[in-house]
Design goal:
Number of strands: 16
Oligomer: single chain
Distance between the termini: 50 Å
Strand order of the largest sheet: 4-12-11-10-7-5-6
Helix content: 40-55%
Order of helices and strands: HEEEHHEHEHEHEEEHEHEEHHHHEHEEEH
Shape: globular
Largest sheet: 7 strands, mixed
């Protein structure tokens, strides 16, 4: 067996399909986000503006967050020193879990090293707690949810994206006495559309099912205190398990679930992904707690309003040029290209020609034929950065003779 040749074939396939991912080496500039420095392979540096980051509100640069992290590292050092079960639970972890449970009006919260691990670990553990559990999963759920459902060994049903009637058919076809859980998202990050939360909760009530929602792209971003779309719509009390991240709007790192005290106790006691993983560094937990607390305030609310305004401005300007964007009313701004090679080429041209960094989004992240550039405007993208982006896209679309027919939401 020639293992090297097998690797060459696998990697070559990605290159041929235009799906090979290239990491851009960038150095963010403290206090100057979204500006950064691109460290090129030839050793030279080039200034760039980041348009694809998930630090939606710029909290990764906020003094409140940085000060909390500095104080924690000065007080305790770097790492946590162990798993949560073995010396890795500190006052910083407990304080962060208290902030999260308060945010979502739940009895308890549980920290993980990422929202991916939180989804995977929780969804793969639930059948141990509820033997015979059937999980009903939206077909466009995040890869971490798909993996958790796949690994749990229990029964699963996949319903068409946001199709409540299809979900109803699946629920009605199963044993009414079987334990059930519906897993879905509040904001789907690739198209920026919202899940039908209220309708799904109605079905959960009717069929006695638990509800599990991923609010990763919504926490910090929606609701009076930033608890997500469920808070905005007054539905948090109808959700049994809420998954969120500390690495996007909160600007730090980590993931979590928030639920009843018994549910959290059971997950922390049974989930290998929690039990056997070293806990977050205390400084990270401290920074995240400070970010969650800040975004609950009126200042946080103002940031959210600025962010929504920026997204609306960018979408309006791109629509005005006839670019094929998808607009579901969220903060996500996808511009459809529809070809992996063209998408990568456009990304390269923006980076090299205009200093605009936006990563191409190709299969398997999105279906083939829907390849796109996904822009994430923030409150710290000013009018100058906005105009530079719009003009660069206008020129490239004309230069490459790309379709300008607007997509419907």
């Amino acid at each position: 067996m020639n293992y090297e040749s097998k690797l060459d074939i696998a990697l070559g396939r990605l290159h041929d399909e235009g799906r090979y991912r290239v990491f851009i080496d960038i150095e963010r500039e403290k206090g100057n986000f979204p500006h950064a420095t691109w460290r090129q392979e030839d050793g030279s540096n080039k200034p760039v503006t980041i348009w694809c980051g998930n630090d939606y509100l710029g909290m990764g640069q906020h003094p409140v967050v940085l000060n909390a992290m500095h104080e924690a590292i000065d007080a305790t050092g770097a790492g946590s020193g162990g798993t949560r079960n073995i010396s890795g639970t500190t006052l910083y972890h407990k304080a962060l879990e208290a902030e999260i449970s308060d945010l979502h009006h739940k009895e308890a919260a549980l920290l993980f090293t990422s929202a991916y691990i939180a989804n995977d670990a929780t969804l793969s553990t639930l059948p141990k707690l509820f033997p015979g559990l059937i999980i009903y999963s939206d077909e466009l759920n995040h890869a971490s949810m798909i993996e958790g459902v796949r690994r749990n060994g229990g029964a699963k049903r996949i319903f068409r994206h946001n199709d409540v009637e299809h979900l109803r058919e699946l629920l009605a076809a199963d044993d009414p006495d079987a334990p059930k859980l519906i897993a879905f998202e509040s904001v789907y990050s690739m198209d920026g559309d919202f899940g039908p939360i209220a309708a799904i909760c109605d079905l959960a009530d009717e069929f006695n099912a638990l509800t599990y929602i991923d609010e990763v792209h919504a926490v910090g971003m929606y609701g009076p205190r930033g608890a997500g779309v469920c808070e905005r719509d007054g539905l948090m009390g109808r959700i049994d398990i809420i998954n969120g991240t500390l690495a996007k709007a909160y600007g730090v790192m980590g993931g979590y679930i928030a639920a009843s005290a018994k549910m959290v106790d059971a997950i922390r006691s049974y989930a290998p992904g929690f039990i056997f993983t070293t806990s977050l560094a205390p400084a990270v937990a401290a920074g995240a707690a400070a970010s969650v607390a800040f975004l609950k305030t009126e200042d946080g609310k103002a940031l959210r309003e600025q962010h929504q305004t920026q997204a609306k401005i960018l979408k309006t300007r791109l629509k005005g040029m006839g670019l094929p964007i998808i607009d579901h009313g969220s903060h996500i701004v996808p511009v459809i290209v529809g070809d992996p090679v063209h998408t990568k080429k456009l990304s390269d041209m923006l980076l090299e020609g205009s200093g605009i960094y936006v990563q191409p989004i190709n299969f398997p992240t999105v279906p083939r034929g829907t390849e796109r550039l996904r822009f994430t405007p923030s409150p710290v993208h000013g009018p100058g950065e906005m105009s530079q982006l719009v003009h660069a896209l206008d020129e490239l679309w004309s230069h490459c003779a790309l379709n300008r027919a607007e997509l419907s939401a």
